[in-house]
Amino acid sequence: MATASATLPAADLLPVSPRANFAYRLVRLVGIPLLKLCFRFNWLDEFALLLLFPVEPRLHFLADPTQLVNRKFQWWLVRMTGGYVPVVRERHGDRALFRHVDRCLEMGGAVAIFPEANYGPTEGELLPFHKGFAHFAIKAGVPVIPVALSGTKDLWFRKPIRVVIGKPLPTTGADPATLTDLAFQTVKAMLPAYLEPPGRKLLRNKLTHLF
């Protein structure tokens, strides 16, 4: 394993094997290498993907570990149930990041990317997509799976959320700009209209800011 920085944890790129730890098998519910494209609102987004996608191939998240290591339980759960690739936001065109993602896909893993690179400001509103995911997918020759999440920005006890998984977007013959635009339009069309549920919103502040 290699690190993106001497101060960052190593990228966890190990594929799942029959000896996968109990926590991983418990939380994750077979396949080819692929890249999952989602947009994010809150901490629940990663957990929803871990719960809904198959156990294998192991799902790796691009994440800033300097934030995660301060959230002890979330950091433990991410390491036990999925992989991660460390991202240094200040490094544009980071070669170490490309090596980590390439290696993950070559080993048969799946990579989950939030192309907005930030939390959405309003439920149901997309920020512009960055093109990094398109470069990764085209180079590796793997499909992109669009995923739309609704209802995760503000959370409360027993609040329903929706996760919509779209059809794979082929990358053969595509260029990064075209694939990025296609992915944005696809996720935008998949995103259901959000209507805030009526009734009491128990533990809203605590659950929204749990991590």
Overview of the structural elements:
It is a single chain. By secondary structure, this protein is of the alpha/beta class. The protein has one domain (22-208). It has helices at 22-27, 44-52, 65-68, 72-81, 95-106, 132-140, 176-190, 204-208, and strands at 34-38, 59-63, 83-86, 110-113, 144-150, 162-165. The protein has a six-stranded mixed sheet, with helices on both faces. The longest helix has 15 residues, at 176-190.
Chart the SSEs and their pairings.
Blueprint: H1 22-27, E1 34-38, H2 44-52, E2 59-63, H3 65-68, H4 72-81, E3 83-86, H5 95-106, E4 110-113, H6 132-140, E5 144-150, E6 162-165, H7 176-190, H8 204-208
Parallel strand pairs: 1-4, 1-5, 2-3, 2-4
Antiparallel strand pairs: 5-6
Number of domains: 1
Oligomer: single chain
Low-pLDDT ranges: 1-33
Mean pLDDT: 75
Radius of gyration: 17 Å
Largest sheet: 6 strands, mixed
- Strand proportion, as a percent range, falls in 5-15%
Distance between the termini: 27 Å
Query: What is the topology, as strand order, of the major beta sheet?
Result: 3-2-4-1-5-6
Structural class assignment:
alpha/beta
Number of strands: 6
Compute the number of helices: 8
- Bulk shape: globular
Query: Could you state the order of secondary-structure elements as H and E?
Result: HEHEHHEHEHEEHH
The percentage helix is 25-40%
